[in-house]
Structure formats: C-alpha cells, structure tokens
Amino acid sequence: MAEPILSVDGLSSGYGDFQALFGVSLDLAPKSILGLVGSNGAGKSTLFKAILGLLPRAREMVRFQGQPIGDVPTRRLAQIGIVMVPEGRRLFRSLSVEENLVLAAEHGRKGAWTVQRVFELFPILGEKRRQGATSLSGGQQQMVAIGRALVANPEVILFDEISLGLAPIVVNDVYAALPEINASGISAIVVEQDVDRVRRLAHQLVCLNEGRVVLSGPAGDFTKAQLTAAYFGE
Amino acid sequence: MVLVDAVVQGVLLGGLYALFAAGLSLVFGVMRLVNIAHGDFIVLGAYIALMVVSLTGLHPFLSLVLVVPLMGLIGYALQRLVLERTMGADVLPPLLVTFGCAVIIQNALLALFSTDAQRLSAGPIETASLPVGSISLGVLPLITFGVAVALIAGLEVVFFRSRAGRAFRATSDDAETAEAMGVDTRHVFALAMALSFAVIAVAAVLLAARSNFDPFAGPARLLYGFEAVIIGGLGNLWGTLAGGIVLGVAQTLGAQVSPSFQILAGHLVFFLILALRPRGLFPRMD
Fold this sequence. Notes:
The structure holds two protein chains of two kinds.
Chain A: E1 6-15, E2 18-28, E3 33-37, H1 44-51, E4 62-64, E5 67-68, H2 74-80, E6 82-85, H3 97-107, H4 115-121, H5 123-127, H6 138-150, E7 156-160, H7 168-175, H8 177-183, E8 187-191, H9 195-201, E9 204-209, E10 212-218, H10 224-231
Parallel strand pairs in A: 3-8, 3-9, 6-7, 7-8
Antiparallel strand pairs in A: 1-2, 1-4, 4-5, 9-10
Helix pairs in contact in A: 3-6
Chain B: H1 2-31, H2 38-56, H3 64-82, H4 92-113, E1 129-132, E2 135-138, H5 139-161, H6 163-173, H7 175-180, H8 185-210, H9 218-232, H10 237-257, H11 262-276
Antiparallel strand pairs in B: 1-2
Helix pairs in contact in B: 1-5, 1-8, 1-9, 1-10, 2-3, 2-4, 2-8, 2-9, 3-8, 5-6, 5-8, 6-8, 9-10, 9-11, 10-11
C-alpha cells in the first residue's frame, strides 16, 4: 500500500473523564474510501471529532501525508486538507444555501471544486441557492453539507452518517455523488450504518466496537456474517 | 404643532439612542454577550476624543479619524486578552467581567479627569438649526440621525453581504462547525467587538458634542441602548433604529407632560413593550 494520506495511530480520546477510544489505529490510502462501521456508541463519531481536534488527541496520534498533525488546531485542518460532513449536517441556519458554500470556499483551499461545480453536481441546490439552508428537505440539506466539504478542496473528507434520517431513495441520490467525488482524487472515511452499502462502496473496512478496532482490512475480504459478528462484538 | 415638534425632536433623539444601541446589538447578535460596560466605553470614547481634540486641535468630527481606529483596537484587544478567556457554555462569567470593566473605567476616569463635566466643542454647528415650516430642526441632531441611519445601513451591508458578515453569522449559528470549516472564531469574535467599538467611537463624539458628560455618564447610555435593542427586537439592526426612535419619541412626549417625566416616560414605554411583545417589535433572532 502507498503511504497513507491519513493515518490514526494508537488514538485514545474521550469526553472528560469518560474514555471512548482505546488505541485506535487505521490507515487511509490515497484516493480511496474507507468504510467505518460499528454499532451506536462504538466510537465512530468520537474518532472523527478526535481527528479534527474537537476532542483531545496527542501530536503523534494523527498523521497527514506522514506529518504528525495531532497538535494542529481544528481551524487549521481545512487549510491542510481535512474536512468533515458532520452528523446531523449542521448547516448554518442564518446563511443561504449559496452562502453556506461560499463561506466554506472562502476558508478552505483553492482548487477544482467551486460553488458552481457543486451546483452542477447537485442541480437542485443551484435552483434553491437563495433559500435559507435549513429550509431545504433533509436530502437537499445533506447535499449542501457535502458541497460545503467539497468547495474546501480537501484531500480527505470524513462523512459522518450522511444517510441518517433520510428516506431510502434520497440516500441513493446522496450516495450517487460519492464515486464522482472519489474520482476527483478525494479520499474519504465513511461512517454508515448500512453494512451492505459500505461493502459495495469502500475499498477498506474498519469495524469499531466499544472504542477498539475489532476488524480491519480490504472490503472484499470479509463475509457479511463476519462483519455482522464484529459489528455486534461477538 | 407642539406635539409634531416633540415627535420630530424625539425621532432625531432616537438616532442617538440607535447609535448607543447598534454596537450592543451587534455584539449580542454575534456572540450572545451583553457588554455591561458598553455605556462606559462610550464615555471612555468621549474622553479619548477630548484628548485627541486638545492635543491635535482637530474638529471633534475630524477627530474620529483617530478615535474610531483607536476604539476599534481597544475592542479587539479587550476581546482577545480578556473576554475570550471567560467565554464558554456559561454566559455569566463574561457578563461579570464586563461589569468589572464598567467599574474600573468609571473610577479610572474619575482619577484622571475628576467629576468635572466635560464637553466637546463642535463650534457653531452645535446651536445651528434649520427652520422647517413652523418647527426648527437642530443641525447636530439631524447629523446624528443621518449618521445613525448610514451606520446601520453600513452594518447591514457588512453583516449580509461581506465575507466578514458571513463568518459573523456562521460563528453565531454554530462556532464549532465554523471552526471545522476553517473559520478562526476567536478572531471573528474580536472583529465583531472591534466593529462594535468603532460604532461606540462615533456615538461617543456625537454624544459629547451634544451634551455634557462626566465619568459616571455611562450606565444611563447603556440603559437607553439596551432599551432600544429590546424594543426593536434582538438581532435586527433596523429594528434597533426603530427602538431608538420609539424611546426618543416617548421621552420627548413625556417631557411635554412635565420635564421631570421625560426619562420615566421612556422607561414606561419600554416596560409596556416588554410586557406586550417580549421579543420586541421586529424580532429576527430565534
């Protein structure tokens, strides 16, 4: 495997006195998708927050292109090239669809992904550009959240449960964008409850249980039964 | 005719109150912080203008070229060096710190300038007036009102049309997510405070050219500004202007009843609006 673009090495973190992650390690290969699975409370969102510095981590626990970035403050990571599509979307409700995207573009990196290109990827957002971001349907809001990550022109996007609360048909629409995003050279870690979907989408799989990695390897190496067993910690 | 005159004078007075209020409204809107020392910083701005005028001989209005950036710097530094350390889930610590600032400013000004009432002399413009029909409009109140409208229009443009404004609103909505998008939210908060202090500088010079001030003139200015913000509705700068006008008109009409009723009339109208429409006349914020 080529040098990982993002690697997590022995990451332990948590909320105050409560430790939620115990020595988690994983490697994200360049231009690949890593599926992160695990039951509720397994530590998936916690891992994302720790990578982004929203929870405590140490310098050597996170590396980006070989460089330790575990001491880089959250606000610098978009410039380095790591952004998140957060759970629950967390759009800025005082900003229009377009302003949400423009804000992310202004504070991210310059590159091929522009606000205009996001409108081409998700034409409905172009039509509703002037509307308040949170007035859109759940699926459209998720498109804004994904677009907001794209216009920062990152190397890595962390997708946290982008299907949460969406109708199945809408989930398909949202996930349809991922191959194009990946083809543009962006690597991704995808947290998803739907194990079948992750197996089809991801190159690598990592399963967390109670804050520890219980399974890790190429997505094709595991049967559904193996994954399900790891998922439930059996 | 007396009533018309009172209403017109009240509207113009409202411009001054809107200037007291705009900075307060801005800081509350962006960071949910009530700056208890707001009025005292207005008075501090007036004393700084006084010193700039006596050192340079500039006209008070021209002194703004120096006073505005100076106050902006003070605002930025106050946020980065003091208030930033107190901000968190609990809204009380920053409130208490600004209260402390109020006490310190009042007493420092007292030590430096004594209780003597001061005034910025703006020359003949202070007493100049324009006759309009049977009433006469003071030039200084007209200028004050015009400046208030222009300033609020300018703040609206900054807030809704500029990169800084987008960062203000995004940070106000969700600071953690803004930070993850690459927004330096501490810098954003400090910029909002600097902008608030720039408005304070303008309010300070217009206040000081219009009436006497002393080290303890701040709290009443905070009160008028606060009332204008609440009457107008939180988070709405045009509403703040409307709130200032309502307060100003209430005061000048109250003065028609009896001069001693002037201030009380304003407070009563504030109380009435708070009781009937707790979110103010034109609320924009949730």
